[in-house]
Every structure is written in structure tokens, then in C-alpha cells.
Amino acid sequence: MSAAHDDHHHGPAKGLSRWLYTTNHKDIGTLYLWFSFAMFLLGGTFAMVIRAELFQPGLQLVDPNFFNQMTTMHGLVMVFGAVMPAFVGLANWLIPMMIGAPDMALPRMNNWSFWILPFAFAMLSSTLLMDAGAPNFGWTFYAPLSTTYAPETVTFFIFAVHLMGASSIMGSINIIATVLNMRAPGMTMMKMPLFVWTWLITAYLLLAVMPVLAGVVTMMLFDVHFGTSFFNAAGGGDPVLFQHVFWFFGHPEVYIMILPAFGVISAIIPTFARKRLFGYDSMVYASASIAFLSFIVWAHHMFTVGMPIAGELFFMYATMLIAVPTGVKVFNWTATMFRGSMTFETPMLFAIAFVVLFTMGGFTGLMLAITPADFQYHDTYFVVAHFHYVLVPGSVFSIMAAAYYWMPKWTGHMYDERLGKLHFWMSFIGINVLFFPQHFLGLAGMPRRVPDYALQFADFNWISSIGGFMFGASQLILLVVVIKCIKGGPKATAQVWEGAQGLEWTLESPAPYHTFTTPPDPKLIHAQ
Amino acid sequence: MLPKAKLWLGLVVAALMTLSTNLQAAWELNMTRGVTQISRDTYDLHMQILWWCVAIGVVVFGVMLWSIINHRKSKGAVAAAFHESTKVEILWTVIPFIILILMAIPATRVLTEAYDSSESDLDIQVTGYQWRWEYRYLREDANEEEVAFYSILSTPRDQINNDLPKEEHYLLEVDKPLVIPVNKKVRFLVTSNDVIHAWWMPAFAVKKDAIPGFINEAWTIVEEPGIYRGQCAELCGLDHGFMPIVVHAVPQEEYDAWYAGQQQAAAATRAAANNVVTLSAALEQGEEIYNRICIACHQANGTGLPPAFPALAGSAVVNGDVEANIRLVINGVPGTAMAAYGRQLNPVELSAIITYIRNSFGNSTGDLVQPADVNTILQEAQ
Ligand SMILES: [Cu+2]
Question: With contacts defined as CB-CB under 8 Å, which chain A residues touch B242?
């Protein structure tokens, strides 16, 4: 290699071009994480509009059409803009460092898969400014509401979804290629950190279902513009077909948003319990079983569409089965804490809250699986409470736990522990005040996606809104913590956390721009 | 117990009881038990799973809490070295599996019951529209007068917009409720005319999607007379939150009398298509219909919400040829939210609403449309 070439290796380029042209996994990880945080605030703003309108019965702030745009955009932005990119960001930063690889396997594609996203979301969000308004048919965009009866902006929505799908597919190809090909000598599959394992499985899920999502929006595109009738009953089509195809994507999608979270939690709890993870092997098998089962349960979202009873029973039993591997995970985390030597820094607080609150979301998930009971729960606030428990104190808390846990490795500084704890407690209290009463609302009969409600729902709604405002405001603390930590703070050691295990903790903090250009010493690689 | 202590205890219990009964209405925490066998079975199923979850939660969270309290470094806890145990892991795979089987058995039983819609006493076709329900009582004899009507939110817009105080059944009241007899097996044939809706009556534990082009079956046997309230449960566009469902369950004799009255009214409406109406009567009836149906899209003063919903004030159609205007309202505009009202309103109502819009919001054609004019066009449309 020439001397000139060697020069590149010392550090990043200067200015904007560093971020535009970068192929460095750490830079791209940072881009993903910031993008995700920005989308989290945007989607959060939409949520605040929703909670403000629902603060009292009656229409106060927005008209029903704008309200529907808010619920739709909130869902889309949070799922595709906040949660998924955050996990891809974490994967970019961490997977190469965890498996002793110098970078991702396909660095240029990595750059591309990130830079698609800002355009996709700019396109989607721009519909808010158009005359016809943003998509207003719910993030599940059921046909024919999203086809024959959709606002004209549905086409922008379709192209935005295509772009997000392309980005995800490239991201997952990259992760699969990296994990399978670039592990350091000695890093056998069964020695990989669980975060790597769960992401590998997630990447396969993404590869399997993103094309299905692309398929369903393409069918919509044809129905809207080219006169086909896939989902139009008047033309011989079938609106229920839409739901089958959508949920064949949509159900694995919810595991795409939770499996990497399992990986994060499986890294954090052992560190702060100063004890090896209980049941590593069963964790791997449980993740794989959950991934498999996620393909055969989709119609539990559709128990009221009028499937034959054999279908209802099959999907009920299959869904109930998911409780088994999920239970194994929760029991393993509990057993890891049991007889450990625990301390409760911010990442651990978020991780423990994850285990408790995610499990509560799991319980309501089990209740929803029981078909006759689901007839009462379906499309009510009970469902809203359920999936927010698994997604917010589930996925989102795990992302925050990960941010606090690895931030010293990324920035070289310790974050402000006092502010971190404040952020945790505000979020923890806020989230429960926000979502717990929604269980009661749903059971008492409040449908979801309504801008106004009957008077008996008034009390729990204002309580829920207060919790929402509290949770929303406390996310600004996170922003302050991150900025403070980037700017300075106590110097972080390489080890950072007393109990931390794994290759990334053998690197100095902040991790150098290029790491593991030569493979790590195999002696450093331990069983997890 | 000391007499004084007893007194205090009594007072506290009494206070708690009054408080809880007062709060019950607003602070409803749980699913309704409902008024049908299926709804009670569903409730029992719900409670059973809930208690299983609580029990599992107490054990798991208990162990976790105990570890958090006792196994902390600050208390000098030293981490143990164990990190697997095949025995324990098999145990906590098998036990949940057994619990699941225990849950699946009653769930399967209730589902099988709920799916048996055979041998009904009365069939009612329920059709969802943006944003109202249509109920059509199926006849055994096609020569009988048919009973069919729309059921639309009757809460005034002023209450929704906070200009009037909200009343007890805010958003859960309709102009014409569905009436069914108690203790009879009523089968609902649920479908839709536009997007997907869902017909949900919590007290019966009936929720079925109304899907265009498909007919779903549901059924109920209501055991107690009463007024029951529910809502559309599937996002169906703009006024999804404003299409409630109200069912009056009444004793058979009362039902029979009501049904006969409806048949007479239907016959009278058909006859009235030949009547001649006055301008003032038409304007009055037209205004009432406008505020009930058209206002959601075309707005109170006819300004609409362009571009989605055009203004009627100054509209070329409304101020132009009468016949074209009648045709538009009868046939709607296919592919848009403008429905074909010829199928929903009778000739008297249609003539009234058209007279009204042609003489309101600054439109002043002075036309008085007669039911007979509408009827001619209706006949040729069919
Ligand atoms: Cu509806």
C-alpha cells in the first residue's frame, strides 16, 4: 500500500463531507442514532398533539382529519424512523467491535442505506404541508381506506415506505455478511455476544418480510393508479387479503423491534449484576424460536375479520406458544440477577424497568391471544396499552439503556449520572401514568384512534395525558445528557464498567476511529 | 374488638363503599360482564387469564425484587458463579406450557360456542357506511313491508365543539336505535358499503368487522331488557369516532308492536312520495337532515372543507340545473366520499334536503323540489 493511502487511516475527514461520504461503521452508527433521536422527537411531538386533544372530551385543538394524520404519522415515524434506525445504529457501532472486525462487511452500502432514510422521511413528512394532508389511514393502512378512499398523498407514502424498506434490506444484508464472515479468529458462533446473535436473527427476519411490505404497498399503488382491484371488492378484490399480507410483514416486524432489545438487556444485566448471563444457550434458542413463531401468528391481529374457526384456533394456539420462549428469557434475566452483586447505574435501571414492564406487555399479549377475549379487547385502548408497553418501556427503554451503557465508549467521557437517573425516574413514572390507565380505558370500552370520547372515559384520559406530557418533556433531559457527555465529563477508562465483558471493553475510550485492523488476541474472547 | 374501634372500622368501610360506588361510573376499571351467556363466559375467561398473569408476575417480580434488595453490592453481596442449570431451564419451559394448555381449553370452548350462529330466530343485516349504520330486518316473505333504517349519531355538533354542555350519553346516542327482542337468538349479517368498519357491542361481547364485499356472521341472545351502547371499532376515516351503536332490547310483545309500527311507517313513506310539500315544510325538514348527515363534510354554513369536501355555498351544481342536482345527490359521486343518498333517504327527505341546500348558505334559486320529481329520477336510477 502507498504512503498516501495510509494517510487516510489516521482519522476522519473534516466537515460535512465526513458525514456525507463516510464508510466508517462508527460514523454511520452515530448518524443513525442522531437520526433516530430526531425522529423520536418528531414522532413524540405528534403524540403530544394526540394526548393534548384527548386531554378532555370534545374537539378542542385539531379536527378529526388532522387527528387521524397524527395517529398515522406518529406510528410510522416511531416504528420506521425512531426504533428501527436506533437499533441499526447500535448494530453499526457495536457489532464490529463485539466480534473483533475492523468495520462492516459492505461499508459503501452502509453509507447508502443510511442516507436513503432522511430522504424517505422528508418525503413522508412533507405530506403534512400539502393540501390533501398527510396519510390519515392509520400506520396499519388498511385497504380500502388507504386505497380507494385515501388522500392523494398516499403515493408519497408508498414511495417513502419503499425507500425505508430498501434501506432496511441493505442494512440487514450488511449485518448478515459482517456477522457470518468477519468474526475474529476464536469468535465462534456460540461465543458471540447475544446482541450479535439477536441482530443476526433480526436481520434474517427483515430480509424475509421487508419485500412483503414492499409487495403490499405496490399492490396499493396499482389499485390507486393503474385500475387493478387487489383490495377493491367492487372489482373482485379482497380487502382482507390486504390484512393478511400486511400482518405477514407486521408481526415479524414487532419482533424485529424487540429482538435486538433482548440482546442489549442480556449485555447490561450481567455487567451490573457482576455475574455471567444465566442460560446463554437457551437465550439463543429462545430467540430463534421466537423468530420462527413470529411467522405463523400474524392473523391474531385479525380475529374479528371473520376467519373460519379452524384458523382462529390455529392462530390462538400458535400465539400462546410464544409465551414459552419469551418466558425463558425473562426467567434467565431474573436468574442472572439472583445472587449477583448488583449496582444500579442508569443503564441497569433502564434494563430492570425493561424486564418488568416488557413482561407486563407480554402478559397483556397473552390475554390478547385468547380469541374470545380478544373480541372484547381488539381495537380498543387495551391494545394501545399493550403494544406501547412492549414498544416504549420495551424497545425504547432498551435503546436508552444501550445509549447510557455504551456512551462512555463512544465519547470517551462518563455521562452525568445524576441527570441520567433523573431522566430514568421521570421516564419511568411518566410512562406508567401514561399507559397504565389505558388498560382500564380499553376494558371499559374506549375504541382506539378516536379524537373524542364518551364522558365515562374522561378521567383516565386526562391522567394519561399528564403522564404523556411528563414522559415527553423528560426526553429533553436525555438530549442534555448526550450533549454534555460529548462535550466533556470525567474521562472514561477502557473497561468503563467494573463487570463489563466483551471485546469492545478491551478498546480504549473513546474507541479509536479504526479498531481491530488486526484481529484481537483469541485469549481475550470468552464464552458469554 | 373494642366498641370504639368497631365504630371507626364501620365508618371507614362505609366511607370506602360510598366512595367506590360514586366513582364506579367514571373510574370503570374492568371489562363489562355483559348481558349474554357469551359475554359472561368471555368475562370469566378474561379474569382467569388475568389471575394467571398476576400469579406469574408475583413470583417472577418477587424473586427479582428480593434479589434487588438483598443481592446488592452495597450490602456486600458477592456474585455467585452459576450460569446454567438444565433442570431448572426444562422446568420453566414445561410449567408455562402446562399453564397455556389450561388456558387454551376454556378458550376453545367459548370460541366454539361463539361461532355457532345456526338456528337464529331473527336475522338483521348490519351495513356500515361512512359514518352511520344501516339495519335491515330480513323478511321471510318478500311481499311483507320491509323495515330498514339508518342509525346516526344524534349528539349535537355544538356539544362536540364545546359550545353546549355535554349530556350523559355524549357520543353514545343515535337518532334511531336497533330494536331486538330479548331471549331470542338474533343473527347479525355484517357488511359494509365503503371502507371497513367494526360493529361492537361490549355488553353482548360481539365485535365483527364490516367488510365491503363480504358478509360476516355474529349472533346474540340478550337476556335482560335494556339500552346498550357501543361504537364502531375499526378506523373508518374522518368520523370514525362518531358512529355509535345503540341497541334496545325489549320483550317480545313490545318488539312485535314496534315492528308493526315500523312497517306501517314504511308504507306511509312510500305513499307520501306522491304528496305535494310546501316550501316552509321542506326547508325545515331539509335543515334537520342537513345537520344530521351532510354537515360532517359540507360543514354548518355550507363552506365544506376544500379540497376534500367542496363548498355547497355558491356551488355550480347547487345553483345550476335542478335535475342535475337531484341526480348528484341520488347517485353520489363514485370513488369519493359523496355517497349515493338515493339509497339512504326517502323521496320526501331527498326533495327536502335538495330544496334546503338550493335556498341556504347564500344560494337562492327559489326552487321547491317535490317528492314526485325525485321519485321519477329515483325510478329510472333503479
Ligand atoms: Cu366505522
Answer: 64, 452
